[in-house]
Automatic annotation (TrEMBL):
Transmembrane segments: none annotated. Residues 229-253 have a biased composition (Polar residues). The lineage of its organism: Eukaryota, Sar, Stramenopiles, Ochrophyta, Bacillariophyta. This is STI1 domain-containing protein. Residues 124-142 have a biased composition (Low complexity). It comes from the Eukaryota. Residues 80-100, 124-159, 217-253 are annotated as: Disordered.
């Protein structure tokens, strides 16, 4: 089944262009969400230009099994095995101790094509980029470099990219989001929806986004961890608080 849209940042191959066949086979990167007429802006690398292309003229750039890192192999497995286990923790535990060769074997048994691998990873990356303030099974340590890097990445995202992440979160099964993104493992379905709503609000309010990014750059790791605990202990409300925005942006990677 052909995708109805591609995540911003996904690598794609142009195909089926009858009026401009010379572009078929060119590789590009998706730069926008779909327009009303079903087109997405794609930066075509060989031409160094942006083209508005119909979704039906795009396909994920194939990604070979051998090229996958251990983290990517596990991401694919968790996504593919989600239908066979209702226990997210158990699914993750089943991968513990497997070496890269074992993981490759299991992926090869579940994947139908290299294009499917690319599609799974593109959506997983999109989900990760739109992470909200989350409760995790173990709270990771956060360095000042992590904070600055996260703030820099967020400051470079366009409103369209933020809206794309929000739309992707709404379109995906919440259970799949929790499996593919450990940072969202502790969120309920309602909290995932709220995170998407907050992200969309920020895409429409540049000042809100700028304020959150600036605060991220000045916060110490200890302050960020205190904010995490406050968020976890507080019942979420529809209006996005600054602390929720900051933690949401920090997990964009």
């Amino acid at each position: 089944m052909a995708p109805s849209s591609f995540p911003v940042g996904a690598r794609v191959v142009l195909a089926g262009l009858a009026k401009a066949p010379q572009y078929n086979g060119k590789v590009g990167v998706v730069r926008s969400v779909p327009t009303q007429d079903g087109r997405q802006n794609v930066h075509v690398e060989d031409l160094d230009k942006v083209m508005a292309l119909r979704v039906i003229n795009l396909k994920h750039e194939p990604k070979s099994l051998k090229s996958l890192s251990i983290k990517e192999l596990k991401t694919v497995l968790l996504a593919k095995e989600s239908d066979t286990s209702s226990d997210d923790t158990n699914s993750d535990r089943n991968l513990t101790g497997l070496d890269k060769s074992d993981l490759q074997t299991r992926v090869s048994q579940l994947i139908s094509s290299e294009e499917e691998i690319a599609e799974i990873l593109a959506h997983a990356s999109s989900s990760s980029a739109s992470s909200a303030a989350t409760a995790t099974r173990t709270t990771p340590s956060v360095s000042r470099e992590d904070l600055k890097s996260g703030a820099d990445r967020v400051s470079q995202m366009s409103p369209d990219q933020l809206r794309q992440q929000a739309a992707m979160m709404r379109s995906m099964d919440p259970a799949a989001i929790r499996r593919m993104n450990p940072q969202m493992a502790g969120l309920t379905d309602a909290q995932i929806k709220m995170a998407a709503d907050q992200m969309e609000q920020m895409s429409n309010n540049p000042e809100m986004l700028k304020m959150a990014v600036n605060q991220m750059k000045t916060m110490s790791p200890e302050e960020l961890e205190r904010q995490r605990q406050q968020v976890m202990a507080t019942t979420p409300t529809p209006a996005p608080s600054t602390k929720n925005q900051i933690d949401q942006l920090q997990n964009m990677d």
